[in-house]
User: What shape does this take?
Amino acid sequence: MSTSYRVDWRRRLTDRSMTVVVTGCFVAAMVPLVWLLGTVVTKGLARFDWTFFTSSMRGIVGDGGGALHAIWGTVLITAATVAISVPIGVATAIYLTEYGSGWLPRLIRFLVQVLTGLPSIVAGLFIYALVVILAGPGARSGVAGALALSLLMTPVVITSAEQMLRLVPTSVREAAIGLGAAKHAIVATIILPHAASGILAGVMLGVCRIIGETAPLLLVAGFTDAMNSSIFDSRMATLPVYIYSQWQNKGADLAAYDNRAWTAALVLIGLVLIFNLTSRLITHRFAPAAQGVGD
Amino acid sequence: MTDTTVTTAATPTVSSSRRLAIESMSAYYGDVQALADISLTIEPHTITAFIGPSGCGKSTLLRTINRMHETAPHAKVAGSIRLDGVDLYGANVDPVAVRRKIGMVFQRPNPFLTMSIRDNVLAGLKLQHRKVSKTHGDDITEMSLRAANLWDSVKDRLNKPGSSLSGGQQQRLCIARVIAVEPDVILMDEPCSALDPISTAAIEDLMINLRRDYTVVIVTHNMQQARRVSDRTAFFTVAGAGEPGRLIECGSTEQIFSHPVHQATADYVGGRFG
Assistant: This one.
């Protein structure tokens, strides 16, 4: 077998060309991402100043002003959305994995799947209709915005939490059952802590889904130039809607409006990044140690 | 209420007897019958080994004793198991209460990964909502870990995660966790099959000590192990795939290995099949 150790040029050529193709695809995917970040950072830095973070747009025409009211609105509405979606989402996931049997869980899973694809404008219109019935036409509030966003976020939380709960090993469940634990105790003491880091990652995914939403907020939370710290009362600005309105309703000084829109975009990306890093850190702290069975 | 059914009936006789009487037990997974009509008495303060080829239903029988079998989807049982005269499958018996009296150690060590060594030992008490003070908890931890021959190697790192231990130590931690809830009976489902020979020897020593305080039932594929540790042995077999497992014979380990009544037993313990 004198040929068996010879270099196989054909195989080597295939290997090289595939490497080139895969690397090329990676670069192609990275280009728009880097470009986008570069554009947002360079254009956003123009107004990345103290005033931007300390003042609202109240009484501002032209240069100056800021987005404090919109940043504050995004933080409040996002927090309210999390407060609504996470308990409902996690409880539903627990029902699906631990308690449900028969046709009801299948129906719920189907509906959750449908809801996951719900266009955000439809969520906005639905809550708009609800708010009109309850509070009369023209009513806008942060909490209505949070409700609309919850319709978008809850399905994401349910789906990811269900997957995480299913990942808890049978051996761990059996250990708890074997110790004479009732079901609710097993869920609270063993299964939830085990799945906590994964559930948190799902919550993070959900927040990323909703933090940039514009359309439903435009409908039900409205827009304002002034600070509003109450999510239950009157219009509340948010960063995406702020960006939209800066770009849409430009005054005489075009550059001032454009610059504020870019800076708000930069802040929004920054918020997502900060949130992402924080939850990664928490996830890392809470993750159960890998199942190590030494020999 | 159902809790007391087991407790009150068992408490007065606890020290004198922890006898399990299995009567005409059959077990099913959906339409498949896994066990046919098993009757067997498990003597208190002895180690009883269940041996037999794979699929003979020995693990299933073990899991019917603490009513673990019925937690599998579509699993059913017929027959009765009495612990000191109380039918564990009686109408008023809560399976959760049964599992508090009959602890279980599994094939692979399964400590709770989110908990420290100490919390693992006390997990059963926590799961049963029993309030334990700090000092009492310390006492239970030490007592249970000593009983599981693990105290000396972990006493300085009780707050480290249970997953930091070796496989054999994890299995002893799981045994300590069972001891902490003070069961009458300890079931062990191939407790050494994932362990190396040294860890296996440590667990076997431990089993022999446990016999003084508990009724122990062990499922094993390892006939040498059955011979080394058990007082009584039950041999099960199965005619073929899809057939239910049957008990061939049960007797003292000495008798089963030296002069079994049935030819099938002789063939199996002699290594001629299975």
About this structure: Chain A is about 75% helix and 0% strand. Residues 168 and 244 of chain A are 43 Å apart (CA to CA). Residues 290-295 of chain A have pLDDT under 50 and may be disordered.
